[in-house]
Amino acid sequence: MKIHEYQAKEIFSRYRIPVTNEVVCYTVEEAVTAAEKLGLPVVVKAQVLAGGRGKAGGVKLARTKEEVPEFAGKILGMDIKGYTVEKILIAQGVKFSSEFYVGLTIDRNSKSVIFMASSEGGVEIEEVAKENPDAIHKFIIDPDLGLTPFLARKIAFALFTDFSLVKQGADLFQKLYKIFMDTDSSLVEINPLVITSEGQLLALDGKMNFDDNALFRQPEIEALNEPTEDELKELDAKEKGLTYIRLDGSIGCMVNGAGLAMATLDLIKYFGGEPANFLDIGGSSNPQKVIDAMNLILSDKNVKVVMINIFGGITRCDDVARGLIIALEKIKVEVPIVVRLSGTNSKEGLEILKQANLPIVETMSQAAQRAIELCAKN
Amino acid sequence: MSILVNQNTKLLVQGITGRDGSFHAGKMKAYGTNVVAGVSPGKGGQTVDGIPVFNTVEAAVLATGANTSIIFVPAHLAADAILEASEAGIELVIAISEGVPTLDMVKVMPYLVKKGTKLIGPNCPGLISPDAALVGILPGNIFLKGNVGLMSRSGTLTYEMVYQLTSNNIGQSTCVGIGGDPVAGLYYLELLQMFQDDPETEAIVLIGEIGGDAEERAAQFIQDHVTKPVVAFIAGQSAPPGKRMGHAGAIISSGSGTAEEKIKAFERVGVKVARIPSEIPDLLKEVMK
User: Fold this and answer.
1) Residue A59, strand partner residues
2) What is the pLDDT of residues B112-134, one digit of tens each?
3) What percent of chain A has pLDDT over 70?
4) Distance (Å) from the C-alpha of residue B63 to the closest C-alpha of chain A?
5) How far apart are the two ends of chain B, measured CA to CA in Å?
């Protein structure tokens, strides 16, 4: 789960990490009032749950009174990577000298939390990682010890020469680690962290992502969730025991298991088709699940054919076949269906489907090719 | 031989009185696994499918000599269950539970290292050494005893692959589902080493997924330490960047961890990579000649 910049900075503030003075605004009028209160110049920043806001024109410095409503008007309603800007942040302009990057995330290899710090802040950190990986310092944090004062100092010494900044930095980094652990984050970032003309460290921006598996014990964080329309559909699916992700193609897919579902999409692409969705129905032959899954697939009007790929493991293929038939009796499906069943009791399952006049194929590859043919005809 | 589980496995089932725990305890026992005990706090003294249930792992180990544990408890209790098994001296823990908070696993790991406990999972289907021991939720009937070691980040895709191997009369020494969570136990490197050292394993199949750089690291490890032939498959070749496909681990982040990069990394060290699942048996026959 992601939250907005202003929400991340509210959390930073609660832990006494200095952030810019700022106001969230939903209208041009609010933006004008906020700018009057904060004093010029102000930065007008789009608040959307996507990166690359600056490049998309969603961040502008307003130096004059006239520019505030102009930029606010332009940015509100703007589309950034599929997200419509509904709120903007009016942040007090700050004079600063250097920009740094600091971030915490999970490192799969050391199975620990890792602290990343770089003097090349203010730019996209992925670019730095690609072009100049040595410019990013990495520190693995022992979960038993936490971010100790000495390690926090070591990180700060990697960024700053002035000892007053080292002390400020070490303190700030420990707070940032505490935020990460307290909120079950998967990512906490300040980019840029700046040195103001008064010699203070300040978070000019903030980014936080959270571990979805831990939201059950983070009610305050969960309350900040703003799912998009597509995400709502995904959430609805999740409640029904399905994992659904909409894609752009026209071949609807119903598969059991995430890995097999991914491999199914790959196969469709491999043979030249375009999948309409990723849909994992999990390990069950429950007809209701198949009905829900079919309804979900068909709610996408681009779907011209449905490919069902089930591998019967513990779930037996004959049970799956019976579930399918019950499901298809209950809902009207106007597009052609291709079914591939394999695994435990597949012979019996295929026999059941044959009797119901459902087109069946033997292998995944055949199913994908058949679906592509049918898609081209429709 | 085989790796990790065999005839000497004495299995304990944590969460044996739950729906999944009792169902799979029965399945594993029916397959022939030596299931010696179950644990379910407050239900000590009962039996499930003839398997004695204990209140604590310690009591179960003392009474039965269990050396391996499989965990079916709800996700928010999984970390504690893993620690309990480790503390009681269990050598190998398999955590099936799905949806375990990542930081719970981060906090558990140092203790497991200290105690020398091996962990597989969480969020994994378990493992099997055909005809010897099934420790997981894998469908035992599709496996065939043989000489191919298999490791995979996904469940049903593993079954699909195994089914194709078995249909082609290619048997398996041990098949391990390592799970797809960001912080997990045994991974490619450890398993590659075990298969390399296992006299019964002649070739290795590695089924990877997009996200992270574990496959790239595996490729490097194969070049440096593995002399047995390895073939691979990467799921998610067509996945759009940033989309999460059911597995917490399968996220492409900004140009790294793509299927293309992983395939390149394998091919660079001479590992043959199947473009579609049905190519795996032929590739194996080629390298095992």
Assistant:
1) A45
2) 999 999 999 999 999 999 999 99
3) 99
4) 31
5) 21
| d(C-alpha A60, C-alpha A46), whole Å | 9
CB contact under 8 A, B214 and A108: yes
pLDDT band of A307, cuts 50, 70, 90: very high
**Domains contained in chain A, CATH given:** 21-92 (3.30.1490.20), 96-222 (3.30.470.20), 229-377 (3.40.50.261)
Name chain B contacts of A262, Cβ cutoff 8 Å: 154, 157, 209-210, 235-236, 239, 245-246, 250
- Distance between CA atoms of A74 and A71, rounded to whole angstroms? 5
Catalytic status, residue A189: yes
- The answer to whether A313 contacts B156, with C-beta atoms less than 8 Å apart, is yes
ipTM of the complex: 0.89
Per CB-CB distance under 8 Å, the chain A contacts of B106 are 106, 111-113, 143
C-beta of residue A278 within 8 angstroms of C-beta of residue A304? no
Q: Which residues of B are catalytic?
A: 247
Nearest one of A242, A323, A254, A326 to A285, comparing CA atoms: A323
Q: Using CB atoms, which residue from A108, A212, A259 is nearest to B154?
A: A259
Judge if B11-120 and B139-288 fold alike in CATH terms. Answer: yes
Distance from CA of A132 to the nearest CA of B (A): 15
Structural domain boundaries of chain B? Answer: 11-120, 139-288
How would you class B260 by CB atoms within 10 Å of its CB: exposed for 0-12, middle for 13-18, buried for 19 or more? exposed
Chain A partners within 8 Å of B212 (Cβ):
108
Smallest CA-to-CA distance from B97 within B118, B76, B111 is with: B76
A184: chain B residues, CB-CB within 8 Å: 101-103
pLDDT > 90? residue B194 = yes
List the single range of A24-38, A98-112, A278-292, B188-202 with lowest mean pLDDT.
A278-292
For residue A10, the distance in angstroms to the closest alpha carbon of chain B comes to 23
> Does residue B246 carry a pLDDT above 50?
no
pTM for this entry: 0.90
Chain B nearest C-alpha distance from A113 (Å):
8
Measured between its terminal Cα atoms, the distance across chain A in Å is 38
Average predicted confidence (pLDDT) for chain A: 91
Strand, helix or coil for residue B257: coil
Average pLDDT, integer, range A295-303: 91
CATH fold for domain B139-288: Rossmann fold (3.40.50)
Tokens of B110: 């140092």
pLDDT tens-place string over residues B142-151: 999 999 999 9
CB-CB under 8 Å, A130 with B247: no
Check residue A282 and give its pLDDT. 79
Q: Give me the CATH topology for the region B11-120.
A: Rossmann fold (3.40.50)
Question: A293 near A242, Cβ under 8 Å?
Answer: yes
